[in-house]
């Protein structure tokens, strides 16, 4: 079943890029620096000025950086406000959902879509309202001038307002064959994938609150949960650790690291652990593995252009606006707590409404 899901996901993603976003996105490919053919609406509102040597300069009222559920929802709302949003989708468009199989908790679906299907629907909906997706990354920003200057690989975008929705990547262990079993037993989200492990044996890796939360949650489905941690003291809060220690379905395996993952027929079946005290190795059986060793918000490219907290998450100053007027932020790049597709989408809506209002005020202040 997992293999079948995986094949379907791959086919869907390929078809998606081949038919849907690739055409627009190809305009910003480093080998074909042509900005941009775009939709009818795009041509009406944006100007592209090409000089012989310089990168083309594109002007937009709203630029959304990031194409997960928050960015796509912001694109739907700003599209419907006739702001012709440009979405800098990244090279791995779609964000974390592209690694997720069934999304059973997104309201509105009685048959769970896969993560890529959900992203496909969101992008199609946004395109219907004039949003344009470019498959490229934003290398740097200059928020000290207005319009804001965004440097892409082969274009410069001057934006009256910017919505940052670049998400946060899960931190992976990097152990041998991890990539092989991602989505085939290895996950970073128990809320998303835990349901698939009914009456199975799973492991959780980490010693913080996320790991405790995931381990406890997984006991609703799994026969057994083994919490693997590299030390014997925990960063997790005392209460959450206590819940884990008192849960009869959870076994603690401390002073251990996963060094290699194993599988059968392409699906995860176990792991090799090494003792961080003695260096001895052991093999364990598991059907699922949940890595919960933290997240890293994608904010490096901002180069401190907006205020961040100590871990690099963007801080809101007023509603969804950052400390830079006209720059908004939404989704996992702001949210260290909920990290759900629906909460990201909800905040994408808020950021779009805030950006629209801000642009209206900007226009009326210029007119008066
Ligand atoms: P965290 O507190 O930074 O914990 C990460 C854990 O992963 C640590 O135990 C760390 O081990 C381990 N780790 C890191 N790199 C590793 C590696 N390469 N190999 C093996 N283990 C590794 O992260 P988090 O648990 O995601 O929590 C992040 C923040 O969100 C915290 O402030 C937390 O309180 C909060 N949070 C709150 C809730 C809640 O209140 N319900 C739920 C989830 C998260 P070491 O300890 O050895 O470094």
List its salient traits.
368 residues; alpha/beta; FAD/NAD(P)-binding domain; 2 domains; five-stranded parallel sheet; disordered N terminus; binds NADP nicotinamide-adenine-dinucleotide phosphate
Rough outline: elongated
Helix-strand pattern, N to C?
A: HHEEHEHEEEEEHEHEHEHEEEEEEEH
Beta content comes to: 15-25%
> How many helix segments?
9
Helical residue percent band: 25-40%
What class do helices, strands and sheet pairing give? alpha/beta
The CATH topology of the largest domain is what?
A: FAD/NAD(P)-binding domain
Low-pLDDT residue intervals, each spanning 5 or more residues = 1-10, 16-52
CATH superfamily of the largest domain: FAD/NAD(P)-binding domain
User: In total, how many beta strands?
Assistant: 18
Q: Give the domain tally.
A: 2
Ligands bound, unique: NADP nicotinamide-adenine-dinucleotide phosphate
CA(first)-CA(last) distance: 63 Å
* CATH-scheme architecture of the largest domain: 3-Layer(bba) Sandwich
Describe this structure in words.
- The chain has about 375 residues and is α/β, with parallel strands linked by helices.
- The chain folds into 2 domains: about 1-170 and about 295-365, FAD/NAD(P)-binding domain; about 180-290, 3-Layer(bba) Sandwich (FAD/NAD(P)-binding domain), CATH 3.50.50.
- The protein is about 30% helix and about 25% strand.
- It contains 9 helices and 18 strands.
- The protein has helices spanning about 1-25, 40-45, 70-80, 115-130, 180, 190-195, 210-220, 240-245, 340-365, and strands at about 50, 55-65, 85-90, 130-135, 140, 150, 155-165, 170, 185, 200-205, 225-230, 250-255, 255-265, 265-275, 280-285, 290, 295, 325-330.
- Strands 1, 2, 3, 4, 5, 6, 7 and 18 form an 8-stranded mixed sheet that branches.
- Helix 3 (about 70-80) runs parallel beside helix 4.
- The structure holds NADP nicotinamide-adenine-dinucleotide phosphate.
